[in-house]
Amino acid sequence: MKYQILAETYARIERTSSRLEMTELLSELFRKTPRSLIARVVYLTQGKLHPDFEGIEIGVAEKLAVRAVAQATGTPQEVVARQLSREGDLGTVVEKLLSHKTHKPTLTVDEVYETLDQVARISGAGAQAAKLERLAQLLARATPLEAKYIVRTATGKLRMGVGDMTVLDALAAVFGGGRQARPVLERAYNLTSDLGYVAQIVAEGGLEATRKIRVVVGKPIRPMLAERLSDPEELLRKLGGRCIAEYKYDGERVQIHKDAKAVTLYSRRLERITDQYPDVVDLVRRSIRAKDAIVEGEVVAIDAESGDLLPFQELMHRRRKYGIEEAMRQIPTALYLFDALYADGEDLTERPYAQRHAVLERITREDDRCRLAAWREVRSVRELEAFFEQAVAEGCEGLVCKAPGGVYQAGARGWLWIKFKREYRSEMTDSVDLVVVGALYGRGRRAGTYGALLMAAYDPDEDAFPTVCKVGSGFTDQFLAELPKMLAPYIRKEKPPRVVSRMEPDVWVEPALVFEIVGAEITLSPIHTAGWNAVREGAGLAIRFPRFLRVREDKGPTDATTVRELVEMYRRQLRKVASSPESS
Ligand code: ATP
Prior knowledge:
Layout: H1 3-15, H2 19-32, H3 38-45, H4 62-73, H5 77-87, H6 90-97, H7 109-121, H8 127-140, H9 144-154, H10 164-175, H11 182-192, H12 195-211, E1 225-229, H13 232-238, E2 243-248, E3 252-258, E4 263-266, H14 278-287, E5 293-301, H15 312-315, H16 324-330, E6 333-343, E7 346-347, H17 353-363, E8 370-372, E9 375-378, H18 381-393, E10 398-402, E11 413-421, E12 432-441, E13 450-456, E14 465-471, H19 477-487, E15 491-492, E16 499-500, E17 507-509, E18 514-518, E19 521-525, E20 540-544, E21 547-551, H20 563-579
Parallel strand pairs: 1-11, 6-8, 14-16
Antiparallel strand pairs: 2-9, 2-10, 3-4, 3-5, 5-6, 6-7, 10-11, 12-13, 12-17, 12-18, 13-14, 15-17, 18-21, 19-20
Adenosine-5'-triphosphate (ATP) binds at residues 225-226, 246-249, 253, 268, 298, 338, 373, 400, 419.
Protein backbone atom coordinates (compact mmCIF):
# COMPACT_ATOMS: atom_id res chain seq x y z
CA MET A 1 0.00 0.00 0.00
CA LYS A 2 1.28 3.44 -0.93
CA TYR A 3 1.89 5.97 1.87
CA GLN A 4 0.37 8.61 -0.43
CA ILE A 5 -3.08 7.15 0.31
CA LEU A 6 -2.54 7.86 4.01
CA ALA A 7 -1.24 11.35 3.30
CA GLU A 8 -4.27 12.19 1.15
CA THR A 9 -6.64 10.94 3.86
CA TYR A 10 -4.80 12.99 6.50
CA ALA A 11 -5.17 16.11 4.36
CA ARG A 12 -8.91 15.54 4.15
CA ILE A 13 -9.22 14.75 7.88
CA GLU A 14 -7.46 18.01 8.67
CA ARG A 15 -10.01 19.98 6.71
CA THR A 16 -12.98 18.68 8.65
CA SER A 17 -14.10 19.48 12.15
CA SER A 18 -17.00 17.06 12.08
CA ARG A 19 -16.37 13.86 13.99
CA LEU A 20 -18.85 12.00 11.81
CA GLU A 21 -17.01 12.97 8.66
CA MET A 22 -13.71 12.07 10.30
CA THR A 23 -15.09 8.59 11.04
CA GLU A 24 -16.23 8.26 7.40
CA LEU A 25 -12.80 9.24 6.10
CA LEU A 26 -11.09 6.76 8.42
CA SER A 27 -13.52 4.02 7.41
CA GLU A 28 -12.71 4.68 3.76
CA LEU A 29 -9.01 4.40 4.56
CA PHE A 30 -9.44 1.15 6.50
CA ARG A 31 -11.39 -0.35 3.58
CA LYS A 32 -8.45 0.33 1.30
CA THR A 33 -5.90 -1.10 3.75
CA PRO A 34 -4.67 -4.69 3.33
CA ARG A 35 -5.60 -6.58 6.50
CA SER A 36 -2.03 -7.37 7.39
CA LEU A 37 -1.23 -3.63 7.48
CA ILE A 38 -4.15 -2.43 9.53
CA ALA A 39 -2.27 -2.25 12.85
CA ARG A 40 0.46 -0.06 11.36
CA VAL A 41 -2.07 2.22 9.67
CA VAL A 42 -3.96 2.63 12.95
CA TYR A 43 -0.81 3.56 14.88
CA LEU A 44 0.40 5.96 12.16
CA THR A 45 -2.96 7.71 11.99
CA GLN A 46 -2.60 8.60 15.65
CA GLY A 47 0.97 9.81 15.10
CA LYS A 48 2.47 6.71 16.75
CA LEU A 49 4.31 3.52 15.84
CA HIS A 50 3.39 1.40 18.86
CA PRO A 51 0.82 1.46 21.65
CA ASP A 52 1.59 4.16 24.21
CA PHE A 53 2.48 1.74 26.97
CA GLU A 54 5.56 0.60 25.10
CA GLY A 55 6.99 4.06 25.61
CA ILE A 56 8.69 4.24 22.20
CA GLU A 57 8.41 7.79 20.93
CA ILE A 58 9.67 8.84 17.51
CA GLY A 59 10.54 12.23 18.99
CA VAL A 60 12.97 13.64 16.42
CA ALA A 61 14.03 17.06 17.73
CA GLU A 62 12.88 19.93 15.51
CA LYS A 63 16.47 21.09 14.95
CA LEU A 64 17.44 17.71 13.59
CA ALA A 65 14.34 17.61 11.39
CA VAL A 66 15.29 21.04 9.98
CA ARG A 67 18.65 19.60 8.96
CA ALA A 68 16.98 16.58 7.37
CA VAL A 69 14.63 18.82 5.39
CA ALA A 70 17.58 20.99 4.28
CA GLN A 71 19.50 17.94 3.10
CA ALA A 72 16.55 16.30 1.36
CA THR A 73 15.47 19.44 -0.49
CA GLY A 74 18.91 20.88 -1.18
CA THR A 75 18.05 24.09 0.67
CA PRO A 76 20.44 25.89 3.03
CA GLN A 77 19.62 25.14 6.65
CA GLU A 78 19.18 28.86 7.54
CA VAL A 79 16.54 29.22 4.84
CA VAL A 80 14.58 26.25 6.21
CA ALA A 81 14.89 27.63 9.74
CA ARG A 82 13.69 31.07 8.62
CA GLN A 83 10.69 29.62 6.80
CA LEU A 84 9.91 27.54 9.87
CA SER A 85 9.74 30.57 12.11
CA ARG A 86 7.41 32.23 9.58
CA GLU A 87 5.12 29.21 9.02
CA GLY A 88 5.28 27.72 12.51
CA ASP A 89 5.13 24.20 11.07
CA LEU A 90 7.96 22.28 9.47
CA GLY A 91 5.49 20.02 7.63
CA THR A 92 4.13 22.99 5.65
CA VAL A 93 7.69 24.20 4.98
CA VAL A 94 8.87 20.91 3.46
CA GLU A 95 5.67 20.62 1.41
CA LYS A 96 6.35 24.05 -0.12
CA LEU A 97 10.03 23.37 -0.69
CA LEU A 98 9.18 20.23 -2.62
CA SER A 99 6.20 21.69 -4.49
CA HIS A 100 8.04 21.64 -7.82
CA LYS A 101 8.39 17.86 -7.59
CA THR A 102 5.87 16.03 -9.68
CA HIS A 103 7.12 12.43 -9.59
CA LYS A 104 4.68 9.63 -8.90
CA PRO A 105 4.39 8.41 -5.32
CA THR A 106 6.54 5.34 -4.67
CA LEU A 107 6.88 5.10 -0.88
CA THR A 108 5.00 2.27 0.78
CA VAL A 109 3.42 2.36 4.23
CA ASP A 110 5.88 -0.32 5.34
CA GLU A 111 8.90 1.68 4.20
CA VAL A 112 7.76 4.77 6.05
CA TYR A 113 6.80 2.81 9.16
CA GLU A 114 10.03 0.84 9.30
CA THR A 115 12.27 3.83 8.69
CA LEU A 116 10.53 5.85 11.40
CA ASP A 117 10.78 2.88 13.73
CA GLN A 118 14.52 2.64 13.12
CA VAL A 119 14.85 6.37 13.70
CA ALA A 120 12.98 5.97 17.01
CA ARG A 121 15.21 3.15 18.19
CA ILE A 122 18.68 4.31 17.18
CA SER A 123 20.65 5.26 20.26
CA GLY A 124 24.20 5.60 21.48
CA ALA A 125 27.17 7.26 19.83
CA GLY A 126 26.50 8.67 16.37
CA ALA A 127 22.75 8.30 16.84
CA GLN A 128 21.93 11.83 15.72
CA ALA A 129 23.86 11.51 12.46
CA ALA A 130 22.27 8.15 11.70
CA LYS A 131 18.75 9.47 12.43
CA LEU A 132 19.40 12.49 10.20
CA GLU A 133 20.62 10.31 7.35
CA ARG A 134 17.61 7.93 7.44
CA LEU A 135 15.06 10.71 7.68
CA ALA A 136 16.66 12.77 4.90
CA GLN A 137 16.74 9.76 2.58
CA LEU A 138 13.09 9.04 3.24
CA LEU A 139 12.08 12.66 2.61
CA ALA A 140 14.10 12.82 -0.61
CA ARG A 141 11.90 10.06 -2.03
CA ALA A 142 8.60 11.52 -0.83
CA THR A 143 5.99 13.56 -2.68
CA PRO A 144 5.36 17.02 -1.17
CA LEU A 145 2.23 15.83 0.63
CA GLU A 146 3.93 12.70 1.96
CA ALA A 147 6.91 14.74 3.19
CA LYS A 148 4.57 17.04 5.11
CA TYR A 149 3.08 14.18 7.12
CA ILE A 150 6.34 12.26 7.52
CA VAL A 151 7.95 15.33 9.09
CA ARG A 152 4.99 15.91 11.38
CA THR A 153 4.97 12.27 12.45
CA ALA A 154 8.72 12.19 13.03
CA THR A 155 8.63 15.31 15.21
CA GLY A 156 5.59 14.10 17.16
CA LYS A 157 3.35 16.83 15.71
CA LEU A 158 0.83 14.86 13.72
CA ARG A 159 -2.16 15.96 15.72
CA MET A 160 -5.29 15.50 13.68
CA GLY A 161 -7.49 14.94 16.71
CA VAL A 162 -8.33 11.34 15.80
CA GLY A 163 -9.28 10.00 19.22
CA ASP A 164 -9.36 6.33 20.22
CA MET A 165 -13.15 6.29 20.12
CA THR A 166 -13.20 7.58 16.54
CA VAL A 167 -10.85 4.78 15.46
CA LEU A 168 -13.07 2.22 17.22
CA ASP A 169 -16.15 3.62 15.45
CA ALA A 170 -14.46 3.29 12.07
CA LEU A 171 -13.26 -0.25 12.83
CA ALA A 172 -16.78 -1.22 13.90
CA ALA A 173 -18.20 0.17 10.68
CA VAL A 174 -15.70 -1.57 8.40
CA PHE A 175 -15.00 -4.91 10.07
CA GLY A 176 -17.73 -5.37 12.67
CA GLY A 177 -20.80 -4.80 10.53
CA GLY A 178 -21.81 -1.45 12.02
CA ARG A 179 -22.26 0.54 15.19
CA GLN A 180 -23.66 -2.40 17.16
CA ALA A 181 -20.14 -3.89 17.11
CA ARG A 182 -18.74 -0.92 19.04
CA PRO A 183 -19.15 -2.40 22.57
CA VAL A 184 -17.28 -5.58 21.57
CA LEU A 185 -14.40 -3.58 20.14
CA GLU A 186 -14.37 -1.20 23.06
CA ARG A 187 -14.17 -4.06 25.52
CA ALA A 188 -11.26 -5.59 23.61
CA TYR A 189 -9.50 -2.24 23.68
CA ASN A 190 -10.18 -1.76 27.39
CA LEU A 191 -8.65 -5.14 28.13
CA THR A 192 -5.48 -4.60 26.08
CA SER A 193 -4.99 -0.81 25.64
CA ASP A 194 -3.68 -1.56 22.17
CA LEU A 195 -5.74 -0.20 19.27
CA GLY A 196 -3.44 -1.69 16.63
CA TYR A 197 -3.77 -5.15 18.16
CA VAL A 198 -7.56 -4.89 18.33
CA ALA A 199 -7.68 -3.59 14.75
CA GLN A 200 -5.67 -6.51 13.48
CA ILE A 201 -7.80 -9.07 15.30
CA VAL A 202 -11.09 -7.66 14.07
CA ALA A 203 -9.75 -7.21 10.53
CA GLU A 204 -8.47 -10.77 10.34
CA GLY A 205 -10.89 -12.71 12.54
CA GLY A 206 -14.01 -10.56 12.65
CA LEU A 207 -16.18 -10.01 15.71
CA GLU A 208 -15.97 -13.64 16.81
CA ALA A 209 -12.22 -13.41 17.30
CA THR A 210 -12.57 -10.02 18.95
CA ARG A 211 -15.01 -11.40 21.50
CA LYS A 212 -12.39 -13.95 22.49
CA ILE A 213 -9.75 -11.37 23.35
CA ARG A 214 -8.58 -11.88 26.94
CA VAL A 215 -6.24 -9.98 29.19
CA VAL A 216 -2.58 -10.61 28.44
CA VAL A 217 0.40 -10.25 30.76
CA GLY A 218 2.35 -7.35 29.27
CA LYS A 219 -0.59 -5.41 27.86
CA PRO A 220 -2.00 -3.07 30.50
CA ILE A 221 -5.73 -3.15 31.21
CA ARG A 222 -7.49 0.20 31.24
CA PRO A 223 -8.30 0.83 34.90
CA MET A 224 -11.72 0.45 36.45
CA LEU A 225 -12.74 3.68 38.15
CA ALA A 226 -15.06 4.70 40.93
CA GLU A 227 -18.05 7.00 41.14
CA ARG A 228 -18.24 9.23 44.19
CA LEU A 229 -20.81 9.89 46.89
CA SER A 230 -20.70 11.63 50.24
CA ASP A 231 -23.98 10.33 51.64
CA PRO A 232 -23.41 6.90 53.26
CA GLU A 233 -27.05 5.91 53.05
CA GLU A 234 -27.27 6.56 49.33
CA LEU A 235 -23.97 4.75 48.89
CA LEU A 236 -25.13 1.57 50.60
CA ARG A 237 -28.41 1.67 48.71
CA LYS A 238 -26.56 1.90 45.40
CA LEU A 239 -24.49 -1.16 46.30
CA GLY A 240 -27.51 -3.24 47.27
CA GLY A 241 -27.28 -2.81 51.05
CA ARG A 242 -23.83 -4.29 51.58
CA CYS A 243 -20.35 -3.83 50.24
CA ILE A 244 -16.69 -4.56 50.67
CA ALA A 245 -15.30 -1.29 52.02
CA GLU A 246 -11.58 -0.68 51.67
CA TYR A 247 -9.25 2.08 52.73
CA LYS A 248 -8.65 4.61 49.97
CA TYR A 249 -4.89 5.03 50.15
CA ASP A 250 -3.44 8.34 48.99
CA GLY A 251 -0.63 7.19 46.74
CA GLU A 252 -0.10 6.12 43.16
CA ARG A 253 -2.12 3.42 41.50
CA VAL A 254 -0.04 0.68 39.92
CA GLN A 255 -1.04 -2.22 37.74
CA ILE A 256 1.46 -5.01 38.19
CA HIS A 257 2.17 -7.57 35.47
CA LYS A 258 4.25 -10.51 36.54
CA ASP A 259 5.47 -13.52 34.59
CA ALA A 260 8.50 -15.79 34.71
CA LYS A 261 10.62 -13.20 32.92
CA ALA A 262 9.73 -9.90 34.45
CA VAL A 263 7.69 -7.70 36.71
CA THR A 264 6.33 -4.61 34.96
CA LEU A 265 4.54 -1.72 36.64
CA TYR A 266 2.05 0.50 34.83
CA SER A 267 0.75 3.83 36.09
CA ARG A 268 -2.89 4.88 36.11
CA ARG A 269 -2.23 6.31 32.62
CA LEU A 270 -0.70 2.98 31.63
CA GLU A 271 2.83 4.24 31.27
CA ARG A 272 5.62 1.88 32.26
CA ILE A 273 6.96 3.10 35.59
CA THR A 274 8.92 -0.02 36.57
CA ASP A 275 12.22 1.88 36.71
CA GLN A 276 10.90 4.33 39.29
CA TYR A 277 10.07 1.62 41.78
CA PRO A 278 12.75 -1.09 42.07
CA ASP A 279 11.62 -1.51 45.68
CA VAL A 280 8.06 -2.30 44.59
CA VAL A 281 9.37 -4.80 42.03
CA ASP A 282 11.22 -6.54 44.87
CA LEU A 283 8.09 -6.55 47.01
CA VAL A 284 6.12 -8.17 44.19
CA ARG A 285 8.75 -10.85 43.61
CA ARG A 286 8.70 -11.64 47.31
CA SER A 287 4.98 -11.46 47.94
CA ILE A 288 3.05 -12.60 44.88
CA ARG A 289 2.97 -16.36 44.84
CA ALA A 290 1.36 -16.86 41.43
CA LYS A 291 3.81 -17.42 38.59
CA ASP A 292 1.82 -15.27 36.18
CA ALA A 293 -0.42 -12.56 37.53
CA ILE A 294 -1.93 -9.16 36.95
CA VAL A 295 -2.80 -7.39 40.19
CA GLU A 296 -3.58 -3.82 41.13
CA GLY A 297 -2.70 -1.79 44.16
CA GLU A 298 -1.66 1.56 45.51
CA VAL A 299 1.97 2.43 46.23
CA VAL A 300 2.13 4.70 49.25
CA ALA A 301 5.02 6.68 50.71
CA ILE A 302 5.72 5.77 54.32
CA ASP A 303 7.72 7.35 57.09
CA ALA A 304 11.06 5.53 57.28
CA GLU A 305 11.04 5.54 61.07
CA SER A 306 7.44 5.08 62.15
CA GLY A 307 6.05 3.28 59.10
CA ASP A 308 3.13 5.77 59.08
CA LEU A 309 1.45 6.54 55.76
CA LEU A 310 2.49 9.82 54.15
CA PRO A 311 0.44 11.91 51.68
CA PHE A 312 0.64 11.63 47.89
CA GLN A 313 2.82 14.77 47.59
CA GLU A 314 5.67 12.90 49.31
CA LEU A 315 5.45 10.04 46.86
CA MET A 316 5.68 12.46 43.94
CA HIS A 317 9.35 13.01 44.83
CA ARG A 318 9.82 9.49 43.56
CA ARG A 319 8.80 10.56 40.03
CA ARG A 320 12.26 10.96 38.65
CA LYS A 321 14.66 9.44 36.16
CA TYR A 322 17.89 9.83 38.12
CA GLY A 323 18.91 9.44 41.75
CA ILE A 324 16.42 6.64 42.28
CA GLU A 325 18.51 4.81 44.87
CA GLU A 326 18.77 7.95 46.97
CA ALA A 327 15.04 8.68 46.63
CA MET A 328 14.24 5.12 47.61
CA ARG A 329 16.15 5.55 50.86
CA GLN A 330 14.55 8.89 51.64
CA ILE A 331 11.02 7.94 50.69
CA PRO A 332 10.37 4.25 51.26
CA THR A 333 7.08 2.81 50.09
CA ALA A 334 4.51 0.19 50.95
CA LEU A 335 2.21 -1.61 48.53
CA TYR A 336 -1.50 -2.11 49.26
CA LEU A 337 -3.10 -4.55 46.83
CA PHE A 338 -6.78 -4.31 45.98
CA ASP A 339 -7.54 -6.42 42.91
CA ALA A 340 -6.50 -9.51 40.96
CA LEU A 341 -7.30 -9.51 37.23
CA TYR A 342 -5.37 -12.54 36.11
CA ALA A 343 -3.68 -15.43 37.87
CA ASP A 344 -1.93 -18.49 36.49
CA GLY A 345 -3.70 -18.71 33.17
CA GLU A 346 -7.10 -17.44 34.21
CA ASP A 347 -8.66 -14.14 33.17
CA LEU A 348 -10.54 -13.01 36.30
CA THR A 349 -12.08 -9.81 34.95
CA GLU A 350 -15.55 -11.35 34.51
CA ARG A 351 -15.56 -12.85 38.01
CA PRO A 352 -17.39 -11.10 40.88
CA TYR A 353 -15.23 -8.92 43.09
CA ALA A 354 -15.61 -11.17 46.14
CA GLN A 355 -14.00 -14.00 44.15
CA ARG A 356 -11.20 -11.83 42.75
CA HIS A 357 -10.52 -10.64 46.27
CA ALA A 358 -10.33 -14.24 47.50
CA VAL A 359 -7.82 -15.05 44.75
CA LEU A 360 -5.78 -12.00 45.73
CA GLU A 361 -5.71 -13.21 49.34
CA ARG A 362 -4.64 -16.65 48.21
CA ILE A 363 -1.76 -15.51 46.01
CA THR A 364 -0.35 -12.83 48.33
CA ARG A 365 2.13 -13.55 51.07
CA GLU A 366 1.51 -10.51 53.27
CA ASP A 367 4.12 -8.69 55.30
CA ASP A 368 4.72 -5.17 56.65
CA ARG A 369 5.43 -3.63 53.28
CA CYS A 370 3.04 -5.53 51.05
CA ARG A 371 -0.46 -6.40 52.07
CA LEU A 372 -4.07 -6.28 50.94
CA ALA A 373 -5.79 -2.91 51.31
CA ALA A 374 -7.46 -2.87 54.73
CA TRP A 375 -11.03 -4.05 54.15
CA ARG A 376 -14.22 -4.95 55.91
CA GLU A 377 -17.58 -6.25 54.84
CA VAL A 378 -20.07 -3.53 55.70
CA ARG A 379 -23.86 -3.79 56.01
CA SER A 380 -24.93 -0.61 57.80
CA VAL A 381 -24.36 3.14 57.76
CA ARG A 382 -22.97 2.89 61.28
CA GLU A 383 -20.35 0.34 60.25
CA LEU A 384 -19.47 2.35 57.17
CA GLU A 385 -18.97 5.56 59.14
CA ALA A 386 -16.90 3.84 61.81
CA PHE A 387 -14.63 2.27 59.19
CA PHE A 388 -14.34 5.62 57.39
CA GLU A 389 -13.22 7.35 60.61
CA GLN A 390 -10.66 4.64 61.15
CA ALA A 391 -9.34 5.03 57.57
CA VAL A 392 -8.97 8.79 57.96
CA ALA A 393 -7.30 8.40 61.35
CA GLU A 394 -4.70 6.15 59.72
CA GLY A 395 -3.87 8.72 57.05
CA CYS A 396 -6.15 7.59 54.21
CA GLU A 397 -8.42 9.76 52.09
CA GLY A 398 -11.53 7.78 52.88
CA LEU A 399 -12.97 4.52 51.54
CA VAL A 400 -13.58 2.83 48.23
CA CYS A 401 -16.72 0.74 48.56
CA LYS A 402 -17.17 -2.14 46.17
CA ALA A 403 -20.11 -4.29 45.11
CA PRO A 404 -19.18 -7.87 46.07
CA GLY A 405 -20.84 -9.15 42.89
CA GLY A 406 -19.30 -6.60 40.55
CA VAL A 407 -17.15 -7.61 37.56
CA TYR A 408 -14.01 -5.65 36.64
CA GLN A 409 -15.27 -2.94 34.31
CA ALA A 410 -12.06 -2.09 32.48
CA GLY A 411 -11.83 1.52 31.37
CA ALA A 412 -15.16 2.53 32.92
CA ARG A 413 -16.22 4.72 35.77
CA GLY A 414 -19.26 3.03 37.23
CA TRP A 415 -21.35 2.44 40.33
CA LEU A 416 -19.74 -0.92 41.21
CA TRP A 417 -17.01 1.03 43.00
CA ILE A 418 -17.94 4.14 44.92
CA LYS A 419 -15.48 6.38 46.70
CA PHE A 420 -16.49 7.92 49.97
CA LYS A 421 -14.34 10.91 50.85
CA ARG A 422 -14.31 13.58 53.51
CA GLU A 423 -16.55 16.49 52.58
CA TYR A 424 -15.00 19.79 51.69
CA ARG A 425 -16.40 22.78 53.45
CA SER A 426 -17.55 24.41 50.22
CA GLU A 427 -20.74 23.54 48.40
CA MET A 428 -18.78 21.54 45.87
CA THR A 429 -18.26 18.27 47.66
CA ASP A 430 -15.24 17.23 45.66
CA SER A 431 -12.56 18.63 43.45
CA VAL A 432 -12.61 17.92 39.72
CA ASP A 433 -9.88 17.15 37.21
CA LEU A 434 -10.11 19.41 34.16
CA VAL A 435 -8.20 19.73 30.91
CA VAL A 436 -6.45 22.94 29.83
CA VAL A 437 -7.86 23.94 26.41
CA GLY A 438 -7.02 27.65 26.22
CA ALA A 439 -5.07 30.41 27.90
CA LEU A 440 -5.45 34.16 28.38
CA TYR A 441 -2.46 36.46 28.52
CA GLY A 442 -1.68 37.93 31.93
CA ARG A 443 -1.70 41.62 32.70
CA GLY A 444 0.03 43.68 35.39
CA ARG A 445 1.97 41.43 37.71
CA ARG A 446 1.27 38.49 35.42
CA ALA A 447 2.48 40.19 32.21
CA GLY A 448 4.69 37.82 30.23
CA THR A 449 2.87 34.74 31.39
CA TYR A 450 -0.75 33.61 31.35
CA GLY A 451 -3.29 35.12 33.69
CA ALA A 452 -6.04 32.53 33.37
CA LEU A 453 -6.70 29.18 31.77
CA LEU A 454 -9.77 27.92 29.98
CA MET A 455 -10.64 24.49 31.39
CA ALA A 456 -12.77 21.70 29.98
CA ALA A 457 -14.35 18.45 31.10
CA TYR A 458 -14.40 15.29 28.95
CA ASP A 459 -17.42 14.04 27.06
CA PRO A 460 -16.81 10.36 26.19
CA ASP A 461 -19.94 10.10 24.04
CA GLU A 462 -18.71 12.78 21.66
CA ASP A 463 -15.01 12.28 22.40
CA ALA A 464 -14.96 16.05 22.98
CA PHE A 465 -13.78 18.63 25.51
CA PRO A 466 -16.49 21.18 26.38
CA THR A 467 -15.49 24.10 28.62
CA VAL A 468 -16.47 24.52 32.30
CA CYS A 469 -14.58 27.49 33.69
CA LYS A 470 -11.77 29.99 33.45
CA VAL A 471 -9.38 29.54 36.34
CA GLY A 472 -7.11 32.36 37.48
CA SER A 473 -6.51 31.72 41.15
CA GLY A 474 -4.65 29.26 43.30
CA PHE A 475 -1.42 29.55 41.27
CA THR A 476 1.86 30.30 43.01
CA ASP A 477 4.21 32.85 41.39
CA GLN A 478 6.66 30.10 40.65
CA PHE A 479 4.00 28.01 38.93
CA LEU A 480 2.92 30.99 36.82
CA ALA A 481 6.50 31.61 35.78
CA GLU A 482 6.79 28.02 34.59
CA LEU A 483 3.39 27.96 32.87
CA PRO A 484 4.46 29.25 29.41
CA LYS A 485 7.06 26.51 29.14
CA MET A 486 4.61 23.86 30.31
CA LEU A 487 1.98 24.92 27.75
CA ALA A 488 4.34 25.65 24.83
CA PRO A 489 4.22 22.23 23.13
CA TYR A 490 0.43 22.33 23.04
CA ILE A 491 -0.28 25.92 21.93
CA ARG A 492 -2.38 26.22 18.75
CA LYS A 493 -3.57 29.14 16.66
CA GLU A 494 -6.77 27.37 15.67
CA LYS A 495 -9.27 25.74 17.98
CA PRO A 496 -8.30 22.06 18.35
CA PRO A 497 -11.01 19.92 16.71
CA ARG A 498 -12.24 18.20 19.86
CA VAL A 499 -12.60 21.37 21.94
CA VAL A 500 -16.14 22.74 22.22
CA SER A 501 -16.16 26.36 23.26
CA ARG A 502 -18.22 29.52 22.94
CA MET A 503 -15.32 31.55 24.31
CA GLU A 504 -12.23 32.68 22.39
CA PRO A 505 -9.12 32.55 24.57
CA ASP A 506 -5.94 34.37 23.46
CA VAL A 507 -4.39 31.03 22.52
CA TRP A 508 -5.85 27.56 22.19
CA VAL A 509 -4.25 24.60 23.91
CA GLU A 510 -4.35 21.06 22.57
CA PRO A 511 -6.05 18.88 25.25
CA ALA A 512 -3.16 17.22 27.10
CA LEU A 513 -2.69 18.66 30.59
CA VAL A 514 -4.99 17.85 33.49
CA PHE A 515 -5.27 20.13 36.52
CA GLU A 516 -7.20 19.49 39.71
CA ILE A 517 -9.63 22.32 40.44
CA VAL A 518 -11.96 23.06 43.31
CA GLY A 519 -14.71 25.68 43.26
CA ALA A 520 -17.51 27.13 45.36
CA GLU A 521 -20.33 25.48 43.45
CA ILE A 522 -21.55 24.31 40.08
CA THR A 523 -23.93 26.70 38.33
CA LEU A 524 -25.86 26.92 35.07
CA SER A 525 -24.07 28.99 32.48
CA PRO A 526 -24.91 30.52 29.11
CA ILE A 527 -21.20 30.57 28.16
CA HIS A 528 -19.73 27.24 29.11
CA THR A 529 -20.57 24.23 26.98
CA ALA A 530 -20.20 21.24 29.33
CA GLY A 531 -23.56 19.53 29.77
CA TRP A 532 -25.18 21.85 27.20
CA ASN A 533 -28.97 21.30 27.27
CA ALA A 534 -28.50 18.44 29.79
CA VAL A 535 -30.01 20.33 32.71
CA ARG A 536 -31.62 23.26 30.94
CA GLU A 537 -32.19 24.15 27.27
CA GLY A 538 -29.63 26.68 26.11
CA ALA A 539 -27.37 26.39 29.15
CA GLY A 540 -24.29 24.46 30.16
CA LEU A 541 -22.57 23.99 33.50
CA ALA A 542 -19.84 26.14 35.01
CA ILE A 543 -17.75 26.09 38.16
CA ARG A 544 -18.01 29.25 40.22
CA PHE A 545 -14.86 30.65 41.88
CA PRO A 546 -12.57 27.92 40.59
CA ARG A 547 -9.20 27.54 42.25
CA PHE A 548 -6.21 25.55 41.03
CA LEU A 549 -5.05 22.81 43.40
CA ARG A 550 -2.38 20.85 41.55
CA VAL A 551 -1.23 19.30 38.29
CA ARG A 552 -2.46 15.73 37.81
CA GLU A 553 0.47 14.24 35.98
CA ASP A 554 -1.01 10.82 36.50
CA LYS A 555 -4.01 11.65 34.32
CA GLY A 556 -4.43 12.09 30.58
CA PRO A 557 -7.12 14.28 29.00
CA THR A 558 -9.65 11.47 28.62
CA ASP A 559 -9.24 10.66 32.34
CA ALA A 560 -10.63 14.08 33.24
CA THR A 561 -13.93 14.51 35.05
CA THR A 562 -16.72 13.73 32.62
CA VAL A 563 -19.72 15.83 31.70
CA ARG A 564 -21.98 13.18 33.19
CA GLU A 565 -20.17 13.43 36.52
CA LEU A 566 -20.59 17.21 36.51
CA VAL A 567 -24.31 16.87 35.83
CA GLU A 568 -24.56 14.38 38.73
CA MET A 569 -22.64 16.71 41.02
CA TYR A 570 -24.92 19.59 40.07
CA ARG A 571 -28.05 17.55 40.78
CA ARG A 572 -26.70 16.29 44.09
CA GLN A 573 -25.84 19.82 45.11
CA LEU A 574 -29.43 20.89 44.40
CA ARG A 575 -30.76 18.03 46.51
CA LYS A 576 -28.45 19.01 49.35
CA VAL A 577 -29.58 22.62 49.27
CA ALA A 578 -33.22 21.52 49.19
CA SER A 579 -32.79 19.33 52.26
CA SER A 580 -30.61 21.68 54.33
CA PRO A 581 -32.28 23.28 57.43
CA GLU A 582 -31.70 26.88 56.21
CA SER A 583 -33.81 26.33 53.13
CA SER A 584 -36.88 25.08 54.96
P1 ATP B 1 -8.77 10.27 42.64
O1 ATP B 1 -8.66 11.56 41.88
O2 ATP B 1 -9.72 10.29 43.79
O3 ATP B 1 -7.45 9.62 42.95
P2 ATP B 1 -9.14 8.70 40.26
O4 ATP B 1 -9.89 9.39 39.20
O5 ATP B 1 -7.67 8.54 40.10
O6 ATP B 1 -9.51 9.33 41.67
P3 ATP B 1 -11.12 6.84 41.02
O7 ATP B 1 -11.50 5.59 40.37
O8 ATP B 1 -12.08 7.94 41.00
O9 ATP B 1 -9.71 7.26 40.41
O10 ATP B 1 -10.77 6.56 42.52
C1 ATP B 1 -10.14 5.39 42.87
C2 ATP B 1 -8.66 5.64 42.98
O11 ATP B 1 -8.29 5.51 44.33
C3 ATP B 1 -7.89 4.57 42.24
O12 ATP B 1 -7.55 4.98 40.94
C4 ATP B 1 -6.69 4.31 43.12
O13 ATP B 1 -5.59 5.08 42.68
C5 ATP B 1 -7.07 4.83 44.47
N1 ATP B 1 -7.26 3.78 45.49
C6 ATP B 1 -6.73 3.81 46.74
N2 ATP B 1 -7.12 2.75 47.45
C7 ATP B 1 -7.94 2.02 46.66
C8 ATP B 1 -8.67 0.82 46.84
N3 ATP B 1 -8.65 0.15 48.01
N4 ATP B 1 -9.40 0.36 45.81
C9 ATP B 1 -9.45 1.02 44.64
N5 ATP B 1 -8.78 2.17 44.42
C10 ATP B 1 -8.04 2.67 45.41
